[in-house]
Amino acid sequence: MSQPSIPRSIRHICKLVLEHKNVEISFPNATEHYNTIKMGFHNKFGIKGVIGAIDCTHVAIIGPSSSSNVIPHEFMNRKGYYSINVEAICDDKLIFRNLNARFPGSCHDSGIWRTSPARIKLLREHVSGSFKWLLGDSGYPLEPWLLTPISNPSAPNEVLYNRIHIKARNIIERAFGVLKSRFRCLSKERVLRYTPSNAAFLVYTCSIFHNILQKHGICDFDEIDIENFEDSSFHDNSPAQTTQYYTAGINARLNCLNSLTQYL
């Protein structure tokens, strides 16, 4: 295969795989699906009501051309290289349930979340009386469907909550690590030589293959090397701006705290 034909072949494969995106990367859409994930998190970490962990990861790309209908400097992240900032939600089995690879590297995680279709869905379900939540780091706003750590915990149940929260939320870091160990083109040492939109297509494609492998229980990665593929030093954990749902988020987190008293 000639060098010029490789990008064309990759785009063709991505196009075919992406036809299955809404099936292979899907948010739970029924109570029984939510309950299965909740049970998985509860069995592993002892925390109730959790349907996923959320975070973002950066995928390096070459500097976009100003003629590619994007603003190049928006893709320069705070580490000083061009990237797309990929938001993802995974379940207890490291399966990506939601993925958004449309934002440039300069975008803050909380800014991506503000307009996320997943947030809109959870808001709508919360209004209708459904109680479930994601786990996110302190870079996200506390909301009744997104629980964050407690700043400066003092009471025993607050310390316990943070400890369990960290362990359970870390599953998204692990999912990113597994994804990047399987598909080295996405790792922090590599640079995708594609436009932002084509790089996003490749991220979606790799994530679909990752989900298929996870669903079939195929362990094709080195457990020891997983940590090396996700740059945890990248995260900006400065507190996000509060939203109008902050008070309801406080109450939701308090309910979660109260459910942990059995472990004290």
UniProtKB/TrEMBL annotation:
Keywords: Hydrolase, Metal-binding, Nuclease, Nucleus. Residues 54-211 form the DDE Tnp4 domain. Its cofactor is a divalent metal cation. GO terms for molecular function: hydrolase activity; metal ion binding; nuclease activity. Pfam families: DDE_Tnp_4. It is found in: Nucleus. GO terms for cellular component: nucleus. Belongs to the HARBI1 family. This is Putative nuclease HARBI1. It comes from Bactrocera latifrons (Malaysian fruit fly). The gene is harbi1_54.
